[in-house]
Amino acid sequence: EEGRKEGRERKEGKTGERERKEGRKERKKERKERKKERKERREKKEERKEERKERKRERKEERKEEKGRKERQEREKERKEGRKERKKERRERKKERKEERKKKKGRKKGRKERERGRKKGRK
Fold first, then answer.
1. Residue 19 — very low, low, confident or very high, per pLDDT cuts 50/70/90?
2. Which portions of the chain have biased composition (kind: Basic and acidic residues) (predicted)?
């Protein structure tokens, strides 16, 4: 069958036309293949771009969290220091008040009673 077809085409002078058709098919196939390859490359590139974006976003988020953590630690540290400072001040004030009371007590006592170690009202 194929041989007869070729013979008839040769007879009619259509061999060149068949070759052109085959060439056209071949070129079409090649174009399709190149198009497919370009598409795949484009998709891979896009995918890599998305991955980079994602990593960048994650790094940014981590930095933000780290910054927040540091700030919280700093605030906590300052709060503790403030608490210690207030406690110390309270102790000092208490001591001062105690000293003041002692002085007042001493002034209230008369000289003689002080020498005897007694309060004013006792005999």
1. confident
2. 1-25, 43-84
